[in-house]
Amino acid sequence: MQVGREAISIVTLSRSLAVLAAIAAAIALAPVLSTLIASWSAGLAGCHLDASGPHSCLLLGMEMKDALYHMSRAYWLFLFTVFYIPVAILLAIAAFVAGRRAKHIGSNPTTVGVRFWLFGLGLLILPLLTNVGLGLLVVASVHWGVARFRSRRASEP
Length: 157
Known about the structure:
Helix content: 55-70%
Mean pLDDT: 76
Order of helices and strands: HEHEEHHHEHH
Strand order of the largest sheet: 1-4
Largest sheet: 2 strands, antiparallel
């Protein structure tokens, strides 16, 4: 069993970009899905759901008026997450191009490691959770710096 970069770098670039595209699309559509789920749940329970405030609603034996009300108001968050849609589209196009290029060249597909995931997730999370996103970028930068230092040190005579 190999330990180190070879053991970690088992995911292809095209698959990694596709996963990041799916994460960006999920972030973009989460507020809309929350609103749809609240509306559907209130409809199934026969409850009144509108913007005037929470109304009494028993769902599965529990009072869900506040939860359904807040879920139904989540569509306003779409104003912040709508910008992830072009990001998801660009990442999906990049995944498609990387996959086609790897098949066209006929060589081993490009693999990615820990740094790719730290940078990618850090950039996706950065607008939503500034501290966590910056933390991931700092960890990725430190990881990259240490790896570069080690490779330079190993190549010295």
